[in-house]
Design a protein that fits this description.
Layout: H1 52-56, E1 60-67, H2 74-85, E2 95-103, H3 109-115, E3 119-123, H4 128-143, E4 150-154, E5 159-160, H5 165-174, E6 179-181, E7 184-187, H6 194-206, E8 220-223, H7 224-229, H8 240-250, E9 255-257, E10 263-266, H9 277-288
Parallel strand pairs: 1-2, 1-4, 2-3, 6-9, 7-10
Antiparallel strand pairs: 4-8, 5-10, 6-8
Length: 305
């Protein structure tokens, strides 16, 4: 889906993040122990010094969205991405495409994605790792650019990105970060589980302090050359996002973990993929004895908590 309007938005004034304040950077401390100033990635494990020219060379941004029978929620996810692609802080030169990977779909997921203007990849793997990898491979073929000039973002079909999500990912990539690992917050869910969701939200926010420990395929971004350098998403049925981030960190890449711009993700307890955010909520509900009504599903129009 090419979602940038033909005229684009106004260019970003150097040194400013549009109408937003500068995001807080929670990067790796400098060798002497002082915190890293905002926008200055610290060399990690022998990485080469920050190269501003390479950072300025970003030209394109692709969003990969794996989907398995998501005809109910995918339109909301794509609408949120369209809004994010029109954010005024996203530079005019940024070419944005959305790639939906319809994985073993028996519903109208692929047709809805195509009608919305997304580039659709059909596979029959029922495997999130393979789906994300197929989407990334397809995305890299859409631009004709060097991987060093392409930023790959990842979200989920049951999620809604905030309006500034793509602009922030682009901004962080342009400042030299090679990957961005964000957070999520629950979207919708059964009212009977409000207490459980609130307690989980508190635990989630407090975990790890400023440099959070969370990894979600619903809120992830990586420069394509770094992505390819570590082998991309592995073909795992669960944990492919964690494996990619571990490989990036082990390889000395500059990875920013940030709580800014969280993605709203469905609080359904019957998720499409095992081992993710929904599966965690389902385990907590089982432990606490919370039993939502049979067939309970998220409310598509609900606002994030």
């Amino acid at each position: 889906m090419s979602v940038r309007p033909p005229e684009g938005g106004p260019p970003v004034t150097p040194g400013r993040y549009g109408p937003h304040e500068a995001p807080t950077s929670h990067g790796t401390p400098a060798p002497h122990g002082a915190p890293v100033p905002y926008g200055t990635p610290a060399p990690c494990r022998g990485a080469s010094p920050y190269a501003p020219r390479a950072a300025r060379d970003l030209a394109a941004l692709a969003v990969v969205v794996p989907a398995h029978d998501e005809e109910a929620l995918l339109p909301h996810a794509l609408a949120a991405l369209r809004r994010a692609a029109r954010h005024p802080a996203l530079p005019v030169r940024a070419r944005v495409r959305v790639v939906v990977v319809a994985d073993a779909c028996a519903d109208a997921t692929a047709e809805l994605a195509h009608a919305a203007g997304a580039h659709v990849v059909r596979i029959d793997a029922r495997n999130p790792g393979r789906a994300r990898a197929a989407g990334a491979a397809a995305a890299l073929g859409l631009f004709g650019e060097s991987p060093a000039r392409v930023w790959l973002s990842s979200t989920d079909a049951d999620s809604r990105v905030p309006a500034d999500w793509l602009a922030r990912q682009w901004r962080w990539g342009a400042r030299g970060w090679e990957a961005v690992v964000g957070t999520v917050q629950p979207l919708g869910g059964d009212p009977a589980l409000a207490g459980l969701l609130h307690r989980e939200a508190v635990r989630y926010r407090e975990a790890g302090g400023a440099r959070h420990p969370h990894v979600h395929g619903a809120n992830l971004g990586v420069r394509a050359d770094a992505y390819l350098g570590v082998g991309g998403f592995p073909p795992l049925a669960t944990g492919e996002d964690h494996a990619l981030v571990r490989a990036l960190e082990a390889g000395g890449h500059r990875v920013l973990r940030t709580r800014r711009s969280p993605v709203a993700t469905s609080a359904r307890l019957r998720p499409r993929a095992s081992g993710g955010y929904g599966a965690r909520l389902a385990r907590l509900a089982a432990v606490e004895g919370a039993k939502p009504p049979r067939g309970a599903a998220p409310v598509p129009g609900a606002e994030p908590a």
